[in-house]
Write a structure and sequence with these properties.
Pfam families: tRNA-synt_1c (PF00749). By secondary structure, the protein is of the alpha/beta class. The protein is about 40% helix and about 10% strand.
């Protein structure tokens, strides 16, 4: 049960004369169709950063009359958490930022939307890259790769593959494969280039040197794709025009640009969103309790308050206004106003915004119970019954609560 007990206890503590007085007097006042995707991995709870990515994709699509796609990147079976994908979809519904197509939302013409159901396509494209000389089988054992990493670490060098198997003749590689030799498929990155340019809608023009690109694994030894291969193939096949994702994926951008080029596909436009930080400016860890969206859902925060708070994590509306509903965010949102620097997650700001949105839900005429206000009353009723099972129904009568809640709503702290 969401933690609405604070309102319950505040109402119980009020004297009858005070209740009647306050209840009587309180009046609280492009050139192609835009297609974006949110592509989480179902490996645990939804992080605030994940919700921010989903929200910015939703706002960008709405603002441009485009499509918002939910794709589930579930090829990492070792980290897969059963029920995680469903929980992500439930939170998107709770937040009222539902995709227009995709997993858990009716599918669509570009499915399947679960990567685990698209493995044949990834294998086909990996084989095509090998045939075209853009990729190659690698037979290096985990032991050899471990020794290589240790050696590079001792020398203070980045941990990159040394391209040991790159020059193996095709017929020799095929002979080993036919004999059942374990192998992966690696991308054959250019040995030299003048720089890989990524035009980013948040960060501008970024040029990556050779050190940022190695012969990345595309297909693992279990025949499942890595993020790099699956993401590029799916973004193309699903017609994704813009990729809005977290800054942690910025280092992958040059690899993806080269993959798009190797497959003769036009890349989407990229926008890498800033990292989320704690109040002490350290990176917000997914393992921290207050990083989970469910933490706020379970405590009874309003969805519009959480969305309002998350929207301002890295986006500057260029105004002194801080309280927005979802429609207002759609009208105001622009990627041009997304900052490069990290955004601080301050839970006290979330609490303040929640109080402001609670006030917005209280109608001026307390005799008329709106649907949004009824949700609060229902939540308080449930919390009251759970907190004090012996409480009479008359004490939590809908009309009674409708007049009493405004008296304490300004001090509500989930």
């Amino acid at each position: 049960i969401p933690r609405w007990e604070y309102l319950v206890s505040a109402l119980i503590k009020m004297r009858p004369t005070c209740i009647s007085r306050l209840a009587a007097t309180s009046i609280i006042a492009s050139s192609c169709r835009v297609r974006v995707r949110y592509a989480p991995s179902p490996t645990g709870y939804l992080h605030l950063g994940g919700l921010r990515t989903a929200l910015f994709n939703y706002l960008f699509a709405k603002r441009n009359n485009g499509d918002f796609v939910l794709r589930i990147e579930d090829t990492d079976r070792a980290r897969f958490v059963d029920g995680s994908g469903e929980q992500i979809a439930d939170i998107l519904r709770w937040a009222r930022i539902e995709p227009t197509e995709g997993a858990y939302f009716g599918g669509g013409q570009h499915g399947p939307y679960f990567q685990s159901q698209r493995t044949d396509l990834y294998r086909e494209k990996a084989a095509e890259l090998v045939d075209r000389g853009e990729a190659y089988p690698c037979f290096c054992s985990t032991e050899r790769l471990s020794r290589l990493r240790d050696e590079l670490s001792r020398k203070g060098m980045p941990s990159t593959y040394d391209r040991h198997c790159r020059s193996i003749p095709k017929d020799e590689a095929q002979r080993r494969i036919s004999m059942g030799a374990p192998h992966v498929i690696r991308f054959k990155a250019p040995l030299s280039h003048d720089g890989i340019v990524v035009e980013d809608m948040v960060r501008g023009k970024i040029t990556f040197g050779s050190s940022h690109v190695d012969d990345a694994i595309l297909l693992k030894s279990d025949k499942h794709p890595t993020y790099h291969l699956a993401s590029v193939i799916d973004d193309h096949c699903m017609g994704i025009s813009h990729v809005l994702r977290g800054e942690e994926w910025l280092s992958s951008a040059p690899k993806h640009m080269l993959l798009f080029k190797a497959l003769d596909w036009a890349p989407p436009v990229f926008a890498h969103l800033p990292l989320l930080l704690n109040v002490d400016r350290a990176k917000l860890s997914k393992r921290q309790q207050h990083a989970s969206v469910s933490y706020y859902v379970d405590r009874g925060f309003l969805p519009e308050a959480v969305i309002n708070f998350v929207s301002l994590l890295g986006w500057n509306p260029k105004t002194t206004k801080e309280i927005f509903n979802l429609n207002e965010l759609v009208n105001e949102f622009s990627l041009g106003n997304v900052q490069k620097g990290g955004a601080v997650v301050d839970e006290s700001r979330m609490m303040w915004m929640n109080r402001e949105h609670l006030r917005r839900r209280v109608p001026e005429n307390l005799g008329i119970i709106t649907d949004e206000y009824a949700e609060i009353i229902f939540a308080v009723q449930n919390a009251a019954k759970a907190t004090i099972p012996s409480l009479s129904g008359a004490m939590v009568n809908e009309k009674r609560l409708a007049k009493l809640i405004p008296a304490v709503v300004g001090n509500f702290s989930p």
